[in-house]
Structures are given as structure tokens and as C-alpha cells.
Amino acid sequence: MSSQQPRYVKMHDNDNVVIIANNGGLPAGTVLDNGIELREAIPQGHKVALTDLAAGDIVRRYNVVIGYAKTDLPKGSWLNEHRLDMPAPPELDNLPIATEKTTLDPLEGYTFEGFRNPDGSVGTRNILAISTSVQCVSGVVAHAVERIRAELLPKYPNVDNVISLEHIYGCGVAIQAPDAVIPIRTLRNIARNPNFGGRTLVVSLGCEKLQADVFFPDRFIPIKNGGFQRQDENIALVTLQDEENIGFEGMIQSIMRAAEEHLIVLNKRVRTTCPISDLVIGVQCGGSDAFSGVSANPVVGYATDLFVRAGASVMFSEVTEVRDGIAQLTARAASPEVAQQLIDQMRWYDQYLGRGSADRSANTSPGNKRGGLSNIVEKAMGSIVKSGSTPIQGVVPPGERCTTRGLNFSATPASDFVCGTLQLAAGMTMHVFTTGRGTPYSLKEAPVVKVATRSDLARRWHDLMDINAGRVVDGDATIEEMGWEMFRYMIDVASGRKQTCAESLKIYNSLALFNPAPIT
Amino acid sequence: MSSQQPRYVKMHDNDNVVIIANNGGLPAGTVLDNGIELREAIPQGHKVALTDLAAGDIVRRYNVVIGYAKTDLPKGSWLNEHRLDMPAPPELDNLPIATEKTTLDPLEGYTFEGFRNPDGSVGTRNILAISTSVQCVSGVVAHAVERIRAELLPKYPNVDNVISLEHIYGCGVAIQAPDAVIPIRTLRNIARNPNFGGRTLVVSLGCEKLQADVFFPDRFIPIKNGGFQRQDENIALVTLQDEENIGFEGMIQSIMRAAEEHLIVLNKRVRTTCPISDLVIGVQCGGSDAFSGVSANPVVGYATDLFVRAGASVMFSEVTEVRDGIAQLTARAASPEVAQQLIDQMRWYDQYLGRGSADRSANTSPGNKRGGLSNIVEKAMGSIVKSGSTPIQGVVPPGERCTTRGLNFSATPASDFVCGTLQLAAGMTMHVFTTGRGTPYSLKEAPVVKVATRSDLARRWHDLMDINAGRVVDGDATIEEMGWEMFRYMIDVASGRKQTCAESLKIYNSLALFNPAPIT
Ligand SMILES: [Ca+2]
Ligand SMILES: [Ca+2]
Ligand SMILES: [Ca+2]
Ligand SMILES: [Ca+2]
Ligand SMILES: [Ca+2]
To answer: Listing from the earlier edge strand, what are the strands of the sheet with B161-164?
Structure first.
């Protein structure tokens, strides 16, 4: 399709706007094939009015009210964030509850090659993870990881990597404050991520508030020494303040000794054929533009449906990006209980934002707006698309594990690295990340499949983007075709047959804990 | 002095407790030379009652009420956190205001060799710093730093290091929330730290909320490109989403090109003789025990007085650790205005903790208590000692720069890495850190001088502790002698004649931003 021919995308018959698809946008005077003449130049991804709007008139996209015209705007006008008033946030009562039940046929015949763990969970990678109970020790742990990579890892070829689960949690967090439970359970559950084979090593200082028996209460994960009785050897604890650690080299040696014990065990892990239902997938978007909701997110939504039909657990997230679509979500809840959990999480988040004198409108970024997303309502509609069309079977509070198969809402901030961190805590073994403006964000704890919304980005960032959903905008592929392509690619990645772009380049962002509690 | 001979420390004549100084503590039945017989074994650093206490009686240390006896406690009893009730926090009105003016003679004849910057500030190190406006880019920046260190740094021998100012700030922070100003100005002011020679490199993504003109408003630091007009070349901005960056290697090359421009300039920096008044020192304590307030902190307090007398800026910090001593601080304020600023910062912090259902008592850690500190009141009295005895000339709100010479209170959380991060933003070029339990914490942005409270720790962590203040407890040195020793050592470190232990070992903790604003 020529780049000269005017192209645009309409999401729903009832919409009174379309977005311009051409790379570089279209000049004033261009006439679309629906007869609309552009009254001004309109950038790619931005909206044009299909009808004459009077001040206060509804602007509708995705068959949803995304705003009201601020002034009179004749058809062909550019509708950007300055020309729209945002609707009020939807109330959290009188919502439709579990009214919509989309039933899709089970999808059979697909498997992947994964690392099955003693607890039944299955990893997509075989990683030695070193966690810490307090940030104080992280400078020492960074040295230990380098030494382990250089001196030990080559001896254990079945182990993919050695990583530190670095974070800035420390005694500053008011540990008794009600919300402190969130960062603590996040750290605890990340240590249990299936990609680590149940063999995470914990380095502690000794005097910190997050003592071993608080980090892992009730021998949640048996701890080898320190704090309480050794049960088995699943998790080793190295405490830097222990008397036997003489100087820096003593600390490094203690960590390396414990690491090697774990490497010996991890090296014996082998991939076996597993049903798709053993996959735990987290999806999110970041650096979004107006094509996120048109190309990449619908492609992810299609793949989400495929994985759910095949029995996998798939989480979508980002509370402030779905808040405006709460009525759609409660309607899609598999049960009234699930709907109530959705409402509870939204209410908690409303209150959390309110305490800090913020609201959901704080979500949209300048890049979102330059990319054509006028406000959070429009962004939300494009974001929810990632969840596909199946009923929501479970809700995962921030930092908790996902324990329900099928589609889950994991209630996290939209912030890319905070969301990714919480999805790892939920047990995610593969991450899908769509981006329109482009972000090189990635994780070292699980493979991250990057999906570009536009071909221009996919071309420019040729070695950073795994999948180019821009082909949908270009008319070169359908959402269905690309959804299947993504499904097959992700199975290859999960099975270790393929590495993601970010894995090849070893691009790793650090964890970012969600800590709503105060710091002392 | 033999380890058999019972030793103890009394802080003030009016105290009705002493702490046991012997390594390993003392057994029941030991008779001190003041005639007190221990009724039970008492660990090192823990308190013993000098008088018979009835339930409710005052327990006094540092001539301050640190608590009330929970039950009847005969003399010779162990007074630990389970046997004391904590006093109520002092009110913030009716405080003594600027009533106490300690005048110390100026100290002349001392200089150091520092790197003077165009803006008049002076660094103790010559570091190329790479900051980021959003966490998304940090995985790429980590690669760039490795490449710059390996390929460029060897060509510029006058540059000490290349570092990334990594952090987890991102679009998630509700940028319009009132408290979001704190992490933003922290990042801005860290980029201006004198150790970076006014030549910080900023890597941005492009679509983030913290755009260049928000990060550096009013061309606060002139930005080379992107966002607004180039003024000069002090700060270069590399934007990963810029069209010219093709793929990962394109991003790396852009960062390396900008880095080399800066390295050329930084390599020309030379040390010149500077007055001590060009030093900006931050002091804090972490992993404290009962000896922190007996040995290391008084030694630091003595050195603080020496530096203040010589004209330097010295900051003490840690709001929750001085909150119980507010009356001492307002009395020491150099003016009613400074006293009011102290009160304002304490009030803001009280409210901040209250919003999260926490209070100052959340500060003390299990290690503090095992080390003999029963509660935050006792810890506070030992913490304030670091500030020496001179009037408080200035108050630095969190994230702001210190602009006043002499003793300053920089209002930060007590959390070690959060405090260190904020002191760097305040312009700190040398950090002093006392520890009793022991922490390997350090920074890469400025040298960190570590001071052990006990000889046992200094021996065990022989290559991690710069100064052993335990010699004061052992009776081998006076506070005055050790204060002078520290003063001279710090001048050597500031001048680059000596490296700290942590610099030699390259132990670096990451920055930890103080973000009281919510995350979307
Ligand atoms: Ca998103
Ligand atoms: Ca985002
Ligand atoms: Ca996101
Ligand atoms: Ca402290
Ligand atoms: Ca501290």
C-alpha cells in the first residue's frame, strides 16, 4: 500500500473520529475516502472529527465516550488533548456484574518445553537468582554475581544465567505500616518465581528489619540457616554480619559457596514437554501511542485468547489504565466474587492516589499525547484490548501470586517496571510488552517479548523489537494472523528454542518495588 | 585494658544507667567498680540500672528521659526494650528557640586539593556521571557505561570513573502530585553534584513525563539539544527515541559520542589548593548499636566541629532519628528562622508518616535492639551527637541543595541509601558513615568514610572500615584524638591522596530516591 494514499483506522461503527495511519501524518486539505477533508495537518496516530461537533458534544472512540468537545469543531478538525474535556471517572457502584460470558473453544494440541519444579510450577528459563533482604548488601552482591558468572557459571552449562534481584527495600520502610505488606510479599514471591527452580539464594545483612522469619514466615520457603531451623536445602541464607565472614573476600566466598551448591542442583534441571496450562504470562504496554490500541494490543489480545483457550494463566494489569473501563471488566468477571475483587482493588487504588492528591489522569505522558492519545480514557480503551475477550477468572492483589488459570487481572501500577516487578512476583515466566513510542525496557528474570505498534519503530529498532504489529496498520497482515504468529513465537521462546531480542542483547532493567508505605 | 576487667560507659552524671563495654558482655554476678552487681548476664552495649526502679520510674541516659520502667527493676537489672515504655514524642510548639549559642574558635591553616568547577563549587573526585530522566533507559545505559569504561576511560587518565546515576523514577510517579517535586529535584540536583564537574550526561527516552525542560527548568543547567535551545555544552542530552538512533548499537554509539565530548573536558580538570570551606560533608549512621552514641558518633561530632570551625558545610540528617531531640535542635538554631525551618520539616514528616499510619517508632531495627538501643529516643540521642556542638546555620529540605556554610540539618529519612542519595543532591562531596552492627553500604558518587563503633567489627571487617572508633571504648584513644585523626584522614581522602576502603573495593550501592508521591 503506497504511503501517499491516505489511510485511517476506525475502531467501531458508532465512533465519530478516526485516527490517521500514514507514517508522518497527512497535510491539510487531504481528502479521505469517506469524503472528509482535513482542515489542518494531522500527525500519525491522531484523531480527526468525522462530524461537525458543537462545544460539549460527545467524542466517541472504541464506542466509548472518550471526551467532550471543548469548543465548536467542524468535521475534518484535529481532536487533540487541548480540544477535549475528559469524562468523570466511572463510579464503583451500580456496575454490571458478571453479565457477559464469552465462551471460546478450548485449544488443544499445543505444548512447550519447560523446566518443571518440585512444587509443580514450570519455568521457561533456568536461572540462579540471588535476592537480598535489605539494600545495604547490594554492592557486595553485585561483586559476587560478577565473580559467579566468571568463575562458576561456565562449569554449569545447563544454567542460563546468574542474576541479582536488586531492589531498594530497606529498614526505612515502616514495616508495621499497613501497606508495607506489599513490598515485602513482592520480594518474597519474586524469590519463588518458577524460573529460579525453587533454589533462590538470599543474602541478608543480619541487623535488618526484614529478618528471615519475616521474609519467609512459617517456613514458607524453608531457610537453610540463620533465623530458624534448617528444613531442607531449597533456599540458602548468607548473612554478611555472621562472625565467620572476615572482610570483603570472606563475604564473597560465603556467597560463592552457597551459589555453587545451588548451581549443582539447578544444572540438573532439564526441559520436559509441558501443557500450555503451565505457562504464566504477563502482558503490559508502555510508551503507548494511538496505534497501541489498534495494532499491538489487539494482536496481544488475540494471542491472550489463544493462550487462555490452551489453558494458560494470562495476567493483564495497570490499574489506572483500566479504571475508566471498570464497567467492561466487572461485566466480564467470571463470578460476582471476582467482580467484587476488581472493585476492591480499584477502590484501594483510588484512595491511595487520593492520599497523595493525585488521580488517574496523572497516567498519560507527553509521549502518549504526541502519539495521539488525548487522555486516560482513550488510553484505557486501547490498553484493555490486551486482555482479549475471555471471562476474568481471578484478581491478583499487588505482590501476591497468581493461582488461577485463565485470564487474570493483576492489580498493579501502570508504571512499566513496577508492573513488571509485580507480575514477576505473581509468578510470571514470560512477559509481553507492547510499545508505540518505543522503550528498550526489559527484565532479566523472565523473557520479555517486545511488540511494536508501528512499522517505522520496528524498522528503526530492528534488533530491539521481537514482533512488528505495525504490519496490521500497513494492511500487510490481519490481527488474527499476527496473533497466531505471536502465539507460536512465544511457545518457541518459552521452550528455549528462541531468545528474545532483549535476551540476545542482555538488556536488563532493575526491579522496582511498589511501596505505598512511608519511609522512616 | 584486659577484656576480663568489667568496663562500662556512663554518658552523663545524671544518668541512672550505664552500658556494658566488654566484648561479649558480662555474666551475672559481675561487680562493677561503682559497686553495682549484675543481677543477670548483660550483653555488650546493653544497659544496667544503677538504682532501684519502681514501675513508671524515669530511665535517664544522655541526661534525657529515654523511657519509663515497665515493672519494678532492682539495680543491677538489664534494661532492654521489653522493660521500658517509650516517652511520648515531643510537641512541636513551645520549643526553646535559638537559646544556645556555642561559639568555637575558627580553625585556620588547613586546605585540601580539590577540583574547582566553573560555578565555584569544588569536587573531591572527577567523575563522568550519566543520569537518566526515566528508568526505561537504564538497561541500555548500563551497557554504555561498561563500554565507556573499557574503551574510552583509559584514554582520559585524569577522570576517576564513569558511573550511571541509576534510579527507578519513571512516568509512574504522579508528576503533578505535590510531593513529586521531591524525587524530581533530587535527580536534578544530583546531576549538579560538584564531583561531576558540571558535565553530567543525561540519557532520556523521549516520551517520558520528566521532559528535559521539567528536569532542568529555566535552563537551570543548559541542555545541549532536545527540548530546548542549546546554550552551551555543559550538559548533553541523548534521546533514545531520536530518529538517528538506529537499533541498540546506534543508541550505544550516541551515548558514547556524547560521553567522549565530556571526557575530553573532564580530563582537563586539575586539583588545586582549596580552603576547607569548599567541602560539603554529609554524616549519617546506619546499623547502629549502643556504641554508636558512645564512640563513633562522638568522634564524628568532634570532626564535625573541626570542619565547621574550618569553614566547611557539614550536614547531619535522619529526621526520625532526631525528632525526639527537637528541643535540642531548635535551641541550637542560629536564628529563629532556622528553628522554624526545623519545626516545619519535622511537622511535614510527622504528617507524612501519619498518612501511612506509621510514626517515628518504626525507625528502630532488630539489630539496633540487639545492639542495646531500646527505642528511638535512645537512638536519637546517640544519633544527634554526630552534629557536634556548633549552631545549626541552615536547613535543607529533601532534594534541595545546601547553600549555607557551617552546620546544616538536611531533612532526610534515616534510611541509609535514601539519606545518602538526598545528601548527594544537597551537594555532598564526601560522606561519613558510622556503623555498629556493620554495613558494607557505599556510594559511587562521592567517597564514603566508614567508621566502626567497636574494635571487634573493625577487626572482622578489616578492609571495609576506614576508622576504628572502638579504640575509644577500649580506652586506647580519646574522642579528641580520634576526631583529629578523622579530620586529617578526610582531608587526605578529599584531596585524592587516599582512597576509602569502599573505593578500593569498588563497592557501590545504587541511588534510592525518596518519593512520597503516589505511583500511577
Ligand atoms: Ca500501559
Ligand atoms: Ca506506561
Ligand atoms: Ca505499563
Ligand atoms: Ca542512623
Ligand atoms: Ca541512616
So the answer is: B161-164, B127-132, B201-204, B236-239
What is the residue-level pLDDT of chain B in tens, covering all 520 positions?
A: 445 699 999 988 999 999 999 989 999 999 999 999 999 999 999 999 999 999 999 999 988 899 999 999 999 999 999 999 998 888 999 999 999 888 899 999 999 999 999 889 999 999 999 999 999 999 999 999 999 999 999 999 999 999 999 999 988 888 888 899 999 999 999 999 999 998 999 999 999 988 877 887 654 444 333 333 333 446 788 999 999 999 999 999 999 999 999 999 999 999 999 999 999 999 999 988 888 999 999 999 999 999 999 999 999 999 999 999 999 999 999 999 999 999 999 999 999 999 998 888 878 888 888 888 888 999 999 999 999 999 999 999 999 999 999 999 999 999 999 999 999 999 999 999 999 999 999 999 999 999 999 999 999 999 999 999 999 999 999 999 999 999 999 999 999 999 999 999 999 999 999 999 999 9
DSSP string computed for B31-79: B-TTSPBPSS-B-TT-EEESS-B-TT-EEEETTEEEEEESS-B-TT-EE
User: Which DSSP string do the residues of B427-447 spell out, in sequence order?
Assistant: T-SEEEEEESS------SSS-
Cell of A54: 458543537
**Cα B478 to the center of its chain, rounded Å:** 24
Return the SS3 of B390.
coil
**Chain B residues 7-26 with CB within 8 Å of chain A:** none
Q: Among all residues of chain B, which has the CA nearest to that of A174?
A: B362
Distance between CA atoms of residues A276 and A114, nearest Å: 10
Distance A473 CA to ligand 5 centre (A): 54
Which residues pair with residue A123 across a beta bridge?
A115
Residue of A136, A254, A364, A464 to mutate, testing the B interface (most B Cβ within 10 Å of its Cβ): A136
Distance CA A502, CA A504 (A): 5
* Sign of the CA dihedral running B326, B332, B333, B336: positive
DSSP, res A488: H
CB atoms within 10 A of CB A453: 34
Residue with cell 500527525: A43
Output b/e per residue, B285-295; b: 16+ Cβ within 10 A: bbbbbbbbbbb
Closest by Cα among A368, A377, A300, A404 to A66: A377
Nearest CA to B467 out of B484, B497, B475 is that of B484
Q: Which three cell numbers stand for residue B24?
A: 561479649
Distance of CA A463 to CAs A501, A502, B235, B248, Å?
A: 6, 8, 29, 7
Q: Rounded distance, CA B15 to CA A187, Å? A: 43
Cβ–Cβ under 8 Å, residues A201 and A416: no
CB nearest A246 (choices: B286, B370, B460): B460
* Cα-to-centroid distance, B414 and ligand 4 (Å): 5
User: Which ipTM did the prediction report?
Assistant: 0.92
Distances (CA, A) of A482 to A133, A359, A469, A473: 42, 35, 7, 12
What DSSP string describes B85-144?
Answer: EPPPPPPSSS---S----------S-EEEEEE-TTS-EESS-EEEEEESSGGGHHHHHHH
Which distant-in-sequence residues (6+ apart) come within 8 Å of A435 by Cβ?
A: A285, A286, A287, A288, A292, A296, A450, A451, A452, A453, A457, A465
- Dist. CA B107–CA A507, nearest whole Å: 52
- A464 interfacial to chain B (CB closer than 8 Å): yes
Contact check, Cβ <8 Å, B358/A174:
yes
Residue type for A360, please?
Answer: R
Bridge partners of A278, per DSSP, are: none
The closest alpha carbon to B191, from B163, B218, B211, belongs to: B163
Residue length of chain A? 520
